[in-house]
Amino acid sequence: MDNMASICIKNATIYMKDEIIQNGSILIESGQITCVKPGDIAYLPKHANIVDGTGLQAIPGFIDGHIHGADGADVMDATGEALDVIAGVLPEEGTTSFAATTITQKFENIDAALMNIADYNSKPGQAELLGTHLEGPFIEKKKAGAQPVQYIMEPDINKFKAWQELSGNSILTVTLAPELDKDGEFIKYLYESGVNVSAGHTNAGFFDMKKAMTYGVRQATHLCNAMTGIHHRDIGVVGAAFFLKELRAELIADGIHVSPEMLSLIFANMGSGRLILITDSMRAKGLKQGNYELGGQPVTVSEESAVLEDGTLAGSILKMNEGARQMLQLSDVTMQDVIRMTSENPAKQLGVWDKKGSIKLGKDADILLVDEQLNINYTICKGVLAYKEDDK
After folding, report:
1. Cα(376)–Cα(378) distance, rounded to whole angstroms?
2. Could you tell me the mean pLDDT of each successive run of 10 residues in the chain, 392 residues long?
3. In terms of C-beta density within 10 A (0-12 exposed, 13-18 middle, 19 or more buried), how is residue 65 classed?
4. What is residue 238's predicted lDDT score, i.e. its pLDDT?
5. How far is the C-alpha of 245 from the C-alpha of 276, rounded, in Å?
6. Catalytic site residue 280?
7. What's residue 392's pLDDT?
8. Is 168 exposed, middle or buried (0-12, 13-18, 19+ CB in 10 A)?
9. How far apart are the first and last CA of the chain?
10. Does residue 163 sit in helix, strand or coil?
11. Could you give the 3-state DSSP secondary structure of residue 280?
12. What is the structure's pLDDT at 203?
């Protein structure tokens, strides 16, 4: 197939934001969606490639707003080659765009990762690098999780400004512990500059979160992990995510970071409108079991999880379609719910809803063809066929 030619998807069940089209067609030209309709498209561009979607569902590409690495590469490697590896392998799991996520580390290591992201140009046929998720170092030591404690620091507007400049203004999300920002000035600065402020690796209580929201916190990072849980006298960050309707929350739906029963409880309380599925995956995703590293720390990877020497979970090896499948298996969760959690909500949270997150005329042609179990048959990234199941 000529990747640069127009593409016409035929005979698919098409999930648009407010409509499901049976036996429909999608025309893709110059990387964008130019026609969506029931039945066939009468006049196709010359040399258009035909993709038969019979028995398949066309849904928007997944957006992973929190990913450290995959296939042996990590964002903190700070090389173009590492980002190429990550961007190149993600379409296999249905991810068409992502936010490269850093970890708490030495300043010079974060500097290098951010400069590398600033210099990187996304390539046709790969997942698009949307920007940066700065996870730490403005976090609570008692909730460090797999973040190296020795590099954690207090909120610092000047340090963030320097990092934002090094990143080429690519920092989209900052994960921080809001209780450390006593007067809220740091959070206010981030929010007013358009950054998605996410509470994570935090010991905040419910009233800390209510206060932080007045400053600009609008998200919780990997819900239930590295934060305060629900207690009958203080419902913590998890309870805040349930209770405060302005908050969205990331969720690692691997059944390990959050048990299947808790996934059901979260969905019952939050629905699909405020949940954002992520992988939080590290470099071992897609590789065999063995010994790896995250943030300079040794990590042991089994078939299911990645852990530090003390047993602390160290990111995941989850693929986006696996997390989406885990949610789809819950009672009352529909394909439309999955689309909100994997595409629509992250697009809105990261400020790219105008061009991504749904199948709509004029938007980027980031489209998946999947079966009912969310197995990926085709992945199209900005109009280029990036993955075909038969070509594995």
Report:
1. 6
2. 80 97 97 96 90 98 98 97 98 98 97 98 97 98 95 98 98 98 98 98 98 98 98 98 98 96 97 98 88 79 79 86 97 96 98 98 98 97 95 64
3. buried
4. 98
5. 14
6. yes
7. 59
8. middle
9. 15
10. helix
11. coil
12. 98
3-state DSSP assignment of residue 273: coil
**What's residue 298's pLDDT?**
83
Contact of 116 with 170, CB cutoff 8 Å: no
DSSP for 226-244 reads SS----SS--HHHHHHHH-
Considering only CA atoms, which of 382, 380, 302, 346 is closest in space to residue 101?
346
Domains and CATH numbers, the chain: 7-59+358-391 (2.30.40.10), 61-349 (3.20.20.140)
Write down the pLDDT at residue 263.
97
Written as six digits, the tokens of 300 are 């042991």
Strands 128-135 and 171-176: parallel
Distance CA 198, CA 193 (A): 14
8 A C-beta contact, residue 252 and residue 278: yes
Q: What is the pLDDT of residue 297?
A: 78
pTM: 0.96
Which of these is catalytic: 74, 208, 254, 280? 280
Q: Look at the alpha carbons of 121, 127, 133, 134 in this order and tell me if their dihedral is positive or negative.
A: negative
Distance CA 291, CA 288 (A): 9
Bridge partners of 129, per DSSP, are 98
Distance (Å, whole) CA 2 – CA 377: 18
Distance (Å, whole) CA 145 – CA 155: 18
pLDDT of residue 4: 65
**CA 269 to chain centroid:** 21
Distance (Å, whole) CA 94 – CA 55 = 18
Residue 289: its pLDDT value, please? 85
User: Do the beta carbons of residue 270 and residue 249 sit within 8 Å?
Assistant: yes
Predicted local distance difference test score (pLDDT) of residue 43 = 87
